């Protein structure tokens, strides 16, 4: 068999494998916060909710009803940045900024986050170390590949309907 044929077969096997992995792994939902409209069906479909604690300077801690609804959904809840500004964690943040986001999260849900996903999957080495020092597991690009990850505002390059298929 020619090298090209072996390459094509290997590539197709890789695609099928990724498809099957995404089919059985838990579903995730990014950009969960009261300031971004989110279809209830997406929240119900997801196993993990990635919450933005202080989107557009609106702390989730002040929205007790929303916090209670998200908590009662019995989903895994992780922290998705602090404000979700563009490449927020690509630039250095301070311990105080991170801790403030964690406190907002705790005020809303009653516990500190144990999982963290940086907005736009961009993070500096310094920020990565800071988050790990705070005891959070960082989820990055491999996570996006292995899970179906929807977005509340459907603003990602790959639209939610495509994610639903693949």
Please render the helix and strand layout as text.
Layout: H1 3-24, E1 28-32, H2 40-45, E2 48-51, E3 54-55, E4 58-59, H3 64-72, E5 76-79, H4 95-109, E6 115-116, H5 125-133, E7 137-138, H6 141-146, E8 149-151, H7 160-165
Parallel strand pairs: 1-2, 1-8, 2-5, 6-7
Antiparallel strand pairs: 3-4
Explain how this protein is built.
The protein has 166 residues and is of the alpha/beta class. It has one domain (27-165): Glycoside hydrolase/deacetylase (TIM Barrel). It is 44% helix and 14% strand. The protein has 7 helices and 8 strands; from the N terminus they run H-E-H-E-E-E-H-E-H-E-H-E-H-E-H. The chain has a 4-stranded parallel sheet. A two-stranded antiparallel sheet has the order 3-4. The chain is globular. The relative contact order is 0.17. The model has no long low-confidence stretch (mean pLDDT 91).
Low-confidence stretches: none
State the helix count.
7
Q: What's the architecture, going by CATH?
A: Alpha-Beta Barrel
Helix content: 40-55%
Count of the domains: 1
| Beta-strand content bin | 5-15%
Number of strands: 8
Give the topology string: H per helix, E per strand: HEHEEEHEHEHEHEH
CATH class, named Alpha Beta
* CATH homology group: Glycoside hydrolase/deacetylase
Largest sheet: 4 strands, parallel
Rg is 17 Å
Alpha-carbon distance between the termini? 30 Å
Shape: globular
pLDDT average, as an integer? Answer: 91
Strand order of the largest sheet: 5-2-1-8
């Amino acid at each position: 068999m020619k090298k090209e044929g072996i390459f094509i077969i290997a590539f197709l096997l890789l695609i099928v494998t990724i498809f099957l992995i995404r089919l059985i792994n838990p579903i995730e939902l990014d950009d969960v916060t009261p300031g971004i409209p989110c279809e209830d069906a997406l929240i119900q479909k997801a196993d993990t909710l990635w919450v933005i604690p202080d989107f557009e300077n609106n702390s989730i801690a002040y929205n007790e009803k929303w916090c209670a609804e998200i908590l009662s959904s019995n989903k895994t809840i992780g922290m998705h940045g602090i404000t979700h500004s563009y490449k927020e964690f690509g630039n250095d943040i301070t311990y105080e900024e991170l801790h403030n986001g964690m406190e907002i999260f705790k005020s809303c849900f009653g516990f500190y986050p144990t999982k963290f996903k940086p907005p736009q999957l961009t993070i500096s080495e310094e920020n990565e170390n800071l988050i790990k020092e705070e005891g959070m597991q960082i989820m990055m690009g491999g996570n996006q590949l292995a899970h179906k990850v929807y977005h509340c505002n459907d603003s990602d390059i790959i639209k939610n309907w495509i994610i639903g298929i693949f």
